[in-house]
Design goal:
The protein is mainly β and about 220 residues long. The chain is built from one helix and 14 strands; from the N terminus they run H-E-E-E-E-E-E-E-E-E-E-E-E-E-E.
Length: about 220
């Protein structure tokens, strides 16, 4: 269904199906990362690029060429949320040698010097034999992932529902039950796992990020 029709459908439903309230959004069209925390790393490890975008002119890029450097792009939210939806579009330039467990994450908080604390839901890449699969909280799924393709990733965590869910391209990938913590931090990580050596050249491109306490289109 076209986007306009989906929005009109929500409006017709009024209070029974309200439009989401966007807590945070960034398509990187300012050409910078001023809304994000990324530590002491800068270009070329954390940057805004025009070479590969989902929409618009700019996208974010997390790149690493060594297992000793792990680029992060973190958003610390203005409050802790019991229910949160986190949408982004992601593309990989290649598949990492042995997988990468952390690509997009929801966490209780981000705090220096420890980094991610209470990371409750995270999607990454797992490897089995010669194939790569989406993974959720370190467990491989049966859905394959490949380089050079834009993927829509949606993470949801809800204390009220007692569930955490991950969708890839609007298809439910995984549901976890059990009461999660409230969420005050989210973001992305290019977690280097090595190879194929030499050299490493692992990049994650990120675009059209949106965060809401209601379902996101």
């Amino acid at each position: 269904m076209p986007l306009g029709e989906r929005i009109l459908g929500r409006i017709r439903h009024g209070l029974h199906n309200p439009l989401p309230s966007i807590i945070f959004g960034d398509s990187f069209e300012t050409g910078d990362l001023s809304l994000w925390y990324y530590g002491a790393l800068g270009p070329p490890y954390v940057s805004v690029v025009t070479s590969l975008v989902y929409t618009g002119t700019y996208a974010a890029k997390l790149w690493t060429n060594t297992t000793s450097i792990t680029p992060n792009l973190v958003k610390m939210l203005p409050a802790s949320y019991d229910t949160l939806y986190f949408r982004s579009y992601i593309q990989f330039n290649r598949m990492p040698n042995v997988g990468s467990p952390y690509v997009a994450s929801l966490a209780r908080e981000w705090a220096l010097p420890w980094g991610w604390l209470g990371r409750t839901l995270y999607v990454g890449i797992g490897k089995s034999d010669t194939k790569y699969y989406w993974s959720v909280n370190y467990a491989n799924t049966t859905t394959e992932v490949q380089a050079g393709v834009w993927y829509k990733i949606l993470l949801m965590s809800s204390i009220m529902l007692g569930k955490r869910r991950v969708w890839i391209n609007d298809v439910l990938l995984k549901e976890l039950t059990g009461t999660p913590p409230s969420i005050s931090a989210l973001g992305f990580q290019n977690y280097p796992t090595g190879g194929p050596p030499p050299p490493m050249d692992d990049a994650i491109y990120i675009d059209d990020v949106a965060v809401s306490d209601l379902p996101i289109i």
